[in-house]
Amino acid sequence: MGPLARGATGGRALTGGGLPPAEGGRPDLGASLLRQRALEEVVPAQAEGGPKDLQGLWPLRGGLSPQSDGDEGREGGDRLRPLHQVLLLSGGLPRGGHRAEMRNLKLLIEYDGTHFHGWQVQPELRTVQGVMQEVIARVVGHQVRLIGASRTDRGVHALGQVANFRTTSTLPPSTLQRAFNALLPGDVVVKAVEEVPPRFHARFSATGKVYEYRLLLSPWPSAILRHFCWHLPEHLDLDAMRECCKLLLGVHDFSSFQLSSSDTRHPFREVRRAEVLERSPGHVVVTLEANAFLRGMVRSIVGTLVDVGRGRISPEGFREIMEAQDRSRASPTAPPHGLFLLEVKY
Predict the structure, then answer these.
(1) What is the CA radius of gyration of the chain?
(2) CATH code for 103-196?
(3) At the topology level of CATH, where does 208-339 sit?
(4) Where are the domains of the chain?
(5) Can you tell me the distance from the alpha carbon of 343 to that of 289, in angstroms, rounded to the nearest whole number?
(6) Active-site residue among 153, 253, 307, 326?
(7) Which terminus has fewer CB within 10 Å in the chain: N or C?
């Protein structure tokens, strides 16, 4: 675990008298916990020289640095950075006292949903949004509202969740990404950070989403994959399932495949892709792409497709279920742990 995750006692803490004064002799009052931890990455040119030496140039070790371009990440490639650049690692006011402009940052996120109660913040429960907002606030120095493209349910995973937030932090995206990943738990990873136009909204700017659902057709379950697929100890008629996938394509009223508790007024969605693929013996993936999805729609469709594969429902019966616009006609919802948010399109 890197110095950021070890906490302030894991290295040389440079607080109080150890910080050089800001311009005009004033102390820099914007220092935060993250800055203190980031400063632990900094090794003074004369380690035992005392606070006066901190006003010179400092080499940064690999890990968190204000800039990532160039040779800093290469072996033996450390470069000297002025101390004022390191002090900009707080998310609020820069040293000069001028507030930075508000920036809109887009995140690409991967997470294992096994131990989360879904994406959306819920009181007293561990959620992806809640965990990430706490970490982001520690990095940028102020509270943020993280907007997710998809509010995944408890136990659902993501390989390509997208979110955005607004901040006054001046940190480069690459530095933010390293800081986030140093502080986040192991079941969440920020795969990319980029600055986007102010109008970008992770949810409302999206033009489509892609989900995949993983099935394991095997006599025995998998100890390794048990949290990432629906184990079915039986054979499925994949050709019959593929025939039903053709019926899903296009714009339809998908009321039969939304959760009964959903209050959506407009249940029409456009399904652009519906596929059943056996990637390797026993490992079957159902992929669905649409302009948007109703709540519980993917898992409801998969649960019904599985009953088609079992021979309990015919392709013609599947068509009748779609046309009925009645959730009670469809099969039980597939369990959440086989579902992955694969991609959000813009």
Answers:
(1) 25
(2) 3.30.70.580
(3) Alpha-Beta Plaits (3.30.70)
(4) 3-87, 103-196, 208-339
(5) 9
(6) 153
(7) N
According to DSSP, the residues that pair with 188 across neighbouring strands are 111
Tens of pLDDT, residue by residue over 330-342, are: 999 999 999 999 9
Closest to 172 measured CA to CA, from 201, 193, 190: 193
Are 287 and 226 in contact, with CB atoms under 8 Å apart?
no
Q: Which residue has the tokens 């006054």?
A: 168
Residues 193-227 have pLDDT tens digits of: 999 999 999 999 999 999 999 999 999 999 999 99
- What are φ and ψ of residue 95, in 5° steps? -60, -35
322: left (phi over 0), alpha (psi -120 to 50) or beta: alpha
Q: Exposed, middle or buried, 264 (CB in 10 Å: 0-12/13-18/19+)?
A: middle
Among 23, 143, 24, 134, residue whose Cα is nearest residue 87: 23
Q: Which pLDDT value is given to residue 99?
A: 56
Q: What is this structure's pTM?
A: 0.73
- Please say if 153 is a catalytic residue: yes
DSSP string, 274-320: EEEEEEETTEEEEEEEES---TTHHHHHHHHHHHHHTTSS-HHHHHH
In the predicted structure, residue 66 carries a pLDDT above the cut 50:
no
* Residue in 153, 136, 156, 154 with CA at minimum distance from that of residue 144: 136
- Per DSSP, helices labelled H in 40-150 are 83-87, 128-140
Is the fold of 103-196 the same as that of 208-339? Answer: yes
Q: Are strands 157-167 and 339-345 parallel, antiparallel or unpaired?
A: parallel
167 pairs with which residues across the strands? 103
Please state the φ and ψ torsions of residue 42, each to the nearest 5 degrees: -90, 130
Token readout for 289 is: 């792409």
d(CA 334, CA 196): 36
Q: How far apart are CA 56 and CA 82, in angstroms?
A: 7
For position 101, what pLDDT does the model report? 87
